Structure formats: structure tokens, C-alpha cells
Amino acid sequence: MKLYLMQHGRSVTKEEDPERPLTGQGVGEVIKIAEFLGKIGVTVSRVLHSGKTRAKQTAEIIISRLNPGEDPVEQKGLSPMDDVKDCFDQINGLEHDIMIIGHLPHLNRLISLLIAGSESISVVAFQHGGVVCLSRNNELHWSISWMVAPEII
To answer: Domain tally for the chain?
Structure first.
């Protein structure tokens, strides 16, 4: 199984707009990542997001390139300060490749728990619009397969 963790694209500040939609640059970067993922053959059964505007917009762009005709799914427990243990348990019970589009510090804590077994160990530095691909083996151990950020493609 593969798990793709993605930080939402760049968004406006809370002062500019309390809903914090993606900026024009953020939209462009997410489109670039989505097209790259399509070119390298990434497929997912579902794209999950927190429900926050910036994550939902990111999910809509991604799914339009990877699973046209499907809708992204709003999932509780993916907001910035949510406990990662529930998400961890749900992920370990899945059999199909999925993508989670979320926020910091939640994504940092989740990947740390999956890879190192502790939320407090720093494993990667997410970037807006960046994706980390994790692979799970038969013993339910996770490893980082690759990561990509908009500025390197």
C-alpha cells in the first residue's frame, strides 16, 4: 500500500481572508504537482482532506488530474491540531492507496508516528504543495519512498 501525504498549497493569510483560500501561486504549484503525479502514474482510491478551504481546493485540483469524475472526501481528524493517533489507526487498516491533504503540524506528527513510532521525532520538512510517498510492507512497517516539492519540478 502507498500513502501520499501532501501539505495544502500556499494560501492567503487569515488577515486577508479568514477562509484562507489558495493564492494564485498556490493554485499554480498544486497544478504542477498534480500533473507531475499523473505523469509518473500515481493512482489513489481516495483523496482525503480536512475540510478547510485551502485543503479542499488542493484536493479538488489533485483529484481532477488523478481521478477525474471522483470527489475528494472530507475527513474528520485532519485539522492542524487534531490528534494523529486516530488517523494512524485508520491508515493502518487500509488496503488501497490513498492521499491525505492536510496541514502542519498534523502532517509532521503523523509521518513521525508512522516512520519513527513517535510524534516528536522530526522525519521530513513538508513544503506547501509538497508530497511525500510512503510505502507499507507486509509487516505494517512504513518507509519513505520519495518526496517532491513544486520548486524541483
So the answer is: 1
Beta strands in 24-141 (DSSP E): 46-49, 73-74, 98-102, 131-136
- What is the extent of the structural domain holding 95? 2-152
Give residue 70's identity as a one-letter amino acid code: E
**Residue 58 to residue 16: CA distance in whole angstroms:** 19
Tens digits of residue pLDDT in 9-63: 999 999 999 999 999 999 999 999 999 999 999 999 999 999 999 999 999 999 9
Extract the C-alpha cell encoding 136: 507499507
Q: Beta-carbon neighbour count of residue 124 at 10 Å? A: 15
Q: What is the pLDDT of residue 139?
A: 82
- Tell the burial category of 57 from Cβ atoms under 10 Å away from its Cβ (0-12, 13-18, 19+): buried
CATH of the domain at 26: 3.40.50.1240
The terminus-to-terminus CA distance of the chain in angstroms comes to 25
| H/E element, 146 | strand 142-148
